[in-house]
Amino acid sequence: MTTLDGIVGLQPESLDRSDPEGVIALLARACSNTGRWGADDALGTLNHIDEETRAVAAGLVRRGRAFSLSLPFDANGPQNGWRRRTNPVHTMLDTGIDAERGIQGFPHGLGGADDVVAMPLQCSTQWDGLGHIFDHGIAYNGRRAGDVVTSAGDQVTGIETAAAHIAGRGVLLDVGRLLGDDDHGTGGELPDGFAITTDHLHACIEQQGPTARIGRGDVVLVRTGRLARARREGWGQYAGGPAPGLSITTAGWLHRSDIAAIATDTWGFEVRPNEFDDAFQPLHQVVIPHVGLYVGEMWDLDALAADCAEDGVFDFWLTAAPIPFTGAVGAPVNPLAVK
């Protein structure tokens, strides 16, 4: 059985696959930020981004080239209906046809178009908020889950609390390019079930050079190449199925590095199938309610990764504010990386 003394150097091969609860409990103790920023804190690791780090990050804009890291929000998206998550439904309320026919009721020839979208807030490129995952009924900062998220939404750590915070230095760790195969010319793709360890992250930083070094307040983007494969082969089981991703053994690194947030090009951020015989998203269960870490999923990192590989620069200005739906536990985002 894994012990607290051995948790720092934990490797996937040393995990007790029959004891997810035990490993989660040890990691929760070792990686807890409960009370770190006070009993009333609602920002978690976003506290690592301050005015100084943001001002320094603004100087990373060298060429002014911008990359949208968002997938399209449309009916052809990645969702397959699991747990009632559907792709966006876009409906027009007023159209050009209505305007041409003069049936909109506006004076002096004015016409217009209007529309509405219905969708789950985590159906495409998005942030997991701090009210999204609990551990044994406990939410971020030691609060009871029922005191945080009610039928009225997240009353404490709703996604609107992050609206003005996620802007600063972004760093791409292109693990797919470093360790994956590039048989299809997509920049490298890791196989499904590949568990990215702390050693892999360190090797990627070392290989990419000084601009890939991680510091306090950074938003780390990990490219696996899984989205490139989905783009080539079709969505299939991209949403919820097997995928490369972070090993639960990276929890200590995610905590110790003092990053503000992390995002990947996969549906679920962590490796799937998960690293236990009977588990579901155990790394989420550690990093969201205990570390207070913001987790981004389904980010499109391919064009940015190609540019980083070409010019050898892996850090950039990143702004990734969630749409501030009051009380939401997650939200869509159109992240912009500017180099």
From TrEMBL:
Gene Ontology MF: a single term: arylformamidase activity
An example Gene Ontology biological process: L-tryptophan catabolic process to kynurenine
InterPro entries (alphabetical): KFase/CYL, KFase_sf
UniProt superkingdom: Bacteria
SUPFAM superfamilies: Putative cyclase (SSF102198)
PANTHER family in the cross-refs: CYCLASE, PTHR34861
Protein name from the UniProt record: Cyclase SCIF309c
Provenance organism: Cellulomonas fimi (strain ATCC 484 / DSM 20113 / JCM 1341 / CCUG 24087 / LMG 16345 / NBRC 15513 / NCIMB 8980 / NCTC 7547 / NRS-133)
